[in-house]
Design goal:
The complex is a heterodimer of chains A (about 110) and B (about 110). Chain A contains no helices and 11 strands. With about 110 residues, chain A is an all-beta fold. In chain A, strands 2, 4, 5, 6, 9, 10 and 11 form a 7-stranded mixed sheet that branches. Chain A has a 4-stranded antiparallel sheet with strand order 1-3-8-7, with no helix packed on it. Chain A is globular. Chain B has strands at about 5, 10-15, 20-25, 30-40, 45-50, 55-60, 60-65, 70-75, 85-95, 100-105, 105-110. In chain B, strand 9 (about 85-95) and strand 10 form a beta hairpin. The chains are: A mainly beta (about 110), B mainly beta (about 110). The interface of A and B includes residues 90 and 102 of A.
Chain lengths: ~110, ~110
């Protein structure tokens, strides 16, 4: 089976712009979750989607949103980018949810200038 | 009550030695404790996980020790090899966190040949 695929790998944006990141989960996995990783901060949970419904949400502002399609592919959108949004954004998939083995993609490195 | 504190921040171990990374959690309702390994440019990958019904779990050279009363768990890497050089994250979750993983800040492990 192919692993979790995230595109694009790198992205450079300027403040105020918006960005959309894409994640294709492992075939058969219905849960997709998103994380923000910054140096020294570990991973911060953004949200989880399961069967096209947002099932869990972390403590991020409303500028961060996502969705999941019927084929389980997911997108994450960040509007009105701020310098502090510069981070590695990781997507993970699993069969049933957050409380089991997560399979991560290699991430999208977002730089906001 | 949702924090997971991980130490040390960085660790240098000689090849063949034992690497030990510690984590402490606050929420007694947490019931899932995984360790993830992350190499540069890659997403984290599940290394080993434990649930509180056992005090120790071993998989090859990797062992999780769990102390429920102290609310601590640790990762031991026996016979550490240069290929083990990576960043290690502990995490915890349970019903109180809506099964969201609460992550430690990470430990950068360097194995010296």
């Amino acid at each position: 089976k192919a692993g979790v695929t995230q595109t694009p790998r790198y992205l450079i944006k300027t403040r105020g712009q918006q960005v959309t990141l894409s994640c294709s989960p492992i075939s058969g996995h219905r849960s997709v979750s998103w994380y923000q990783q910054t140096p020294g901060q570990g991973l911060q949970f953004l949200f989880e989607y399961f069967s096209e419904t947002q099932r869990n949400k972390g403590n991020f502002p409303g500028r961060f949103s996502g969705r999941q399609f019927s084929n389980s592919r997911s997108e994450m959108n960040v509007s009105t980018l701020e310098l502090g949004d510069s981070a590695l954004y990781l997507c993970a998939s699993s069969e049933g949810g957050l409380n089991e083995k997560l399979f991560f993609g290699s991430g999208t490195q977002l730089s906001v200038l | 009550q949702q924090q997971v504190k991980q130490s040390p921040q960085s660790l240098i171990v000689q090849k063949g030695g034992i690497s030990i990374i510690n984590c402490a959690y606050e929420n007694t309702a947490f019931d899932y404790f995984p360790w993830y390994q992350q190499f540069p440019g890659k997403g984290p990958a599940l290394l080993i996980a434990i649930r509180p019904d056992v005090s120790e779990k071993k998989e090859g050279r990797f062992t999780i020790s769990f102390n429920k009363s102290a609310k601590q768990f640790s990762l031991h890497i026996m016979d550490s090899q240069p290929g083990d050089s990576a960043t290690y994250f502990c995490a915890a979750s349970g019903m109180d966190s809506n099964y969201q993983l609460i992550w430690g800040a990470g430990t950068k492990l360097i194995i010296k040949p």
